[in-house]
Amino acid sequence: MTSDPRSVLSRPAPPPDATVRYGGHPDQVADVRLPAGSGPVRPLVVVVHGGFWRAEYDRTHTGPLAADLADRGYPVAQLEYRRTGQPDGGWPTTLDDVAAGIDALPRLVAELGVAAGGPPILLGHSAGGHLALWYAARSTADLRGVVALAPVADLAEAYRLDLDGGAVADLLGGGPDEVPDRYALADPADPALPVPASRCVIIHGLDDVQVPIGISRRYADRLTRRGAEITLVELPEVEHFGVIDPASAAWLEVTAGLLTLH
Fold this sequence. Notes:
It is a single chain. The protein is of the alpha/beta class. It has one domain: 3-Layer(aba) Sandwich (Rossmann fold). It contains 8 helices and 8 strands; from the N terminus they run βββαβαβαβαααβαβα. An 8-stranded mixed beta sheet has the order 1-2-4-3-5-6-7-8, sandwiched between helices. Strand 7 (200-205), helix 7 (213-225) and strand 8 form a beta-alpha-beta unit. The longest helix is centred in the middle third of the chain and has 18 residues, at 93-110. It is globular, with a radius of gyration of 17 Å. It starts with 17 loop residues before the first strand and ends with a helix. The mean pLDDT is 96.
């Protein structure tokens, strides 16, 4: 583990094998990495990056983890989407892009000649964890499961905690009392949204200050009581970025979580 946990955000990674487009906007793309070796055919992993939905963070910081997963035999697609701070980002385009991208990626990857074993797995970090859990709840698409890493899984609570200085309000245009209909459509913890039909593994560090683990605990408790199949893995002495760093001990828990879904 490096001394600066955030170093993974700028760590170089090998370039992707291909970039596919799921729409006409410059950000409606995904980088694809081909599985290494000739081992068993594994499911496509769609990586949804975090960064509190803000334009200053993009898919490039997930390069190290995507390269590691490809080395382990997974086909990987790093999804990009429009984000807040852009003229056309935020509500509803950020969520619309993620839904459209995930819907299209199995076909787009197959068109590259890449074999994938059945439905995809979604792997999302932080705000990307929110988007992955949200997609699993609102979509009828077939998923093998979700691995949510330190997810912003409860938008109403994240708004009350003012995570990243108003990030949720920037995404949805206000708080739960101002735009309740948007929270009902976008918040995975809102009772108006169905529970995910697929299995979800949530992995969260106890030392996380960017997204406190109480958010995952609250989400897992409420959704499990509603019938969702959720496993919450709490990691001591792990902060927000260790779960996306292949050089960290926490990464072994992530790869183990993936294996439970196939």
